[in-house]
Design a protein that fits this description.
Layout lengths: L1 H11 L6 H8 L3 E5 L4 E3 L7 E7 L2 E6 L5 E7 L4 E2 L2 H6 L6 E4 L3 E7 H10 L1 H27 L2 H11 L1 H6 L2 H8 L3 H15 L1
Antiparallel strand pairs: 1-8, 2-7, 3-6, 3-8, 4-5, 4-7
Protein name: Crp/Fnr family transcriptional regulator
Organism: Flavobacterium tagetis
Pfam families: cNMP_binding (PF00027)
């Protein structure tokens, strides 16, 4: 099925699988269509699934006691998303994960993933590679947030993920980069002026 092809390509780019192994891997995923503004993870409920984005854009965020939203992650095509702390430890979630656009995702539940890892070392390797890349990405982000100016954070993110910058609402990008929407607006306007 066409929905599974992008996941198959994603798997093959990281680990070499036989056709039989690929079929075994993807058979544990279910196709889910979600509407814009629909939640797939909410605080206090266990995140049942790890989700691979076939089409669309999603956002993971937390809400602080003062009602401020803080974006933790985005996911567009060929990316994964979940509340990983909740999913991996099977504990209640602390994050919201919501669709920013109508989306198609492939979801695997924790039990099926555990079974896959036991069934074949290659499956375990794939999930390890995914976890390592996610950890490295979070580390880069923490360091960037601690050592760079707001402008540098925007420039760096825009250079690496221009498609995300174009597609997500400005307030979500501002909260991800740790600045106000107004300040992000100023940075973007300055960039446009400098181009002209």
């Amino acid at each position: 099925m066409v929905e599974y092809q992008s996941l198959i390509d994603h798997l093959q780019a990281r680990v070499s699988f036989s056709d039989e192994e690929l079929n075994q891997f993807v058979s544990d995923f279910k196709i889910t269509k979600i509407k814009k503004r629909q939640f797939i993870v909410q605080p206090d409920f266990i995140a049942k699934y790890r989700s691979y984005v076939v089409k669309g854009a999603l956002r993971a965020y937390v809400v602080s006691d003062d009602g401020q939203e803080h974006t933790i992650a985005f996911a567009i095509e060929d990316w994964w998303i979940s509340d990983y702390n909740s999913y991996i430890y099977q504990k209640p979630a602390t994050m919201f994960v919501v669709a920013l656009e109508d989306a198609v995702i492939l979801q695997i539940d924790f039990k099926a993933e555990t079974k896959l890892k036991k069934a074949n070392p290659k499956f375990e390797t794939f999930f390890r590679i995914t976890a390592e890349r996610t950890a490295a990405s979070f580390q880069r982000r923490i360091i960037m947030n601690l050592t760079s100016s707001a402008e540098e954070r925007f420039e760096s993110f825009n250079a690496e993920f221009p498609l995300v910058v174009k597609r997500v609402p400005q307030y979500t990008l501002a909260s991800y980069l740790g600045m106000t929407t107004e300040f992000l607006s100023k940075i973007r306007n300055k960039k446009v002026k400098n181009k002209n």
